Amino acid sequence: MNETASKTDLILDAALPVFVRFGFRKTTMADIARAAKISRASLYLCFNSKEELFRAGSKREHLSTMNNVKAALDRSGSIFDRITAAIRAFQEGLITPFGGGHNAEELFAASTELAPDIALEARARLLDLLIKALSEAEKTREIDLATLQTQPTELAALVVAAMDGIKHTRGAGPEFEGGIRLFMALLKLGTAPQLGQAGP
Amino acid sequence: MNETASKTDLILDAALPVFVRFGFRKTTMADIARAAKISRASLYLCFNSKEELFRAGSKREHLSTMNNVKAALDRSGSIFDRITAAIRAFQEGLITPFGGGHNAEELFAASTELAPDIALEARARLLDLLIKALSEAEKTREIDLATLQTQPTELAALVVAAMDGIKHTRGAGPEFEGGIRLFMALLKLGTAPQLGQAGP
DNA sequence: AGACGATTAGACATTTTTGATCCATATGTC
DNA sequence: GACATATGGATCAAAAATGTCTAATCGTCT
Predict the structure, then answer these.
(1) Which of A74, B24, B116, B152 is placed for a possible disulfide with B110 were both Cys, Cβ 3.0 to 4.6 Å?
(2) Sequence-separated contacts (24+) of B28-36 with Cβ below 8 Å
(3) What residues of B are in contact with residue A22 (Cβ under 8 Å)?
């Protein structure tokens, strides 16, 4: 099979916990090589720099997370439950693994500084998936956007913004869950289809 | 009160978890200063070097642990229970805090390399306390060393050696507890007073 | 055995970080 | 004001990290 991909994956598997434990700055290529049980020289055969390695890891993590997000939206259930699950997957995939603590901030900073494109692309894709889900829900009359005089694109942006705001102000634990639940309840009320308004 | 002592204690309080988390090598004076919420310059007003700071922390930790060991031996109960508790206190005080993992080894190495006198003195004191406890137990006829044809000093040395060996071969978790329990049972049998042999 | 690619240890120059010191400037305290 | 103490920043030597390179080693294949 593709040996290079498998090799880099093994390295990234070993590197992730090291980055999580020590942060980007305190993690050395020697640390990663030791964790991956290869030599430092071999590390540079797969990745040309520490930054490139980190970017690859960040990309893989984002891809994996976005797959979970998409799966959550594709499952059955109400549009609200699916969006809630998608948001939870997004948060757990990109925040929780960096176990809340001293390193979380430093790692997040490194991510947005060294690989801003990856993080931004993931956000764009999340927005896109939400727009698609909301559009379909509107077509099937599960939700009604006429009351709010809005569109799927605008509403999806609000959802993402709310997610960000809730995460920022509150912590990342059960408080975040509560905030999301409240917001989703609000969304449900605002988009409830008006019975007997379907047509003439 | 003694302001310098209190100040250094505050610094050591802040430094210990940093050392535990990152190990000696990866911990910088800037890290410690940040954790203690003082400036690097102030740090050097209390400790002349990183090594001196580490030694002070190690010494304080050893003192605290040895107090617990002494307390365990001074409590009531059989000599075997008290020795078992003392050994457990010794292990938990100097090993467990360095949460089992990557840093434990590095920290232990730093301790025996940067402050070998402190560790050795603690061991000597442990031996001394055990000798005293065994001597008193012999006086009160709780144990009988005649069967083994030995003395408190020799027996205490064996206890320490066994503790070391068990810790070294087995891990530090419940396996250590089992090993100690077995050894103490052996010790109990070997030192059981011979009934009706007290004297003419 | 010999050839081959992959992997490695190790030396290396360069850049970055850290340890440690110093000073000029706050920040209170008497 | 006089005094002690804390701080940020400049500074310099020492240590460590990055990234490159070469020679040696290893395993595999024929």
Answers:
(1) B24
(2) B29/B53, B36/B10, B36/B11
(3) 22, 26
**Cβ proximity of A79 and A142 under 8 Å:** yes
The model's pLDDT over B2-18, given as tens digits with 9 standing for 90+, comes to: 333 578 899 999 999 89
Domains of chain A, start order: 1-48 (1.10.10.60), 54-190 (1.10.357)
Q: Which residues of chain A are within 8 Å of residue B26 when distances are taken between CB atoms? A: 22, 26
| A25 at interface of B, judged by CB pairs closer than 8 A | no
Q: How many CB atoms lie within 10 A of CB A116?
A: 10
| Cβ neighbours for B53, distance < 8 A, ≥ 6 positions apart | B11, B12, B15, B29, B32, B43, B46, B47
B66 phi and psi angles, rounded to 5 deg = -65, -30
Angle between helices B29-36 and B50-74 (to 10 degrees): 60
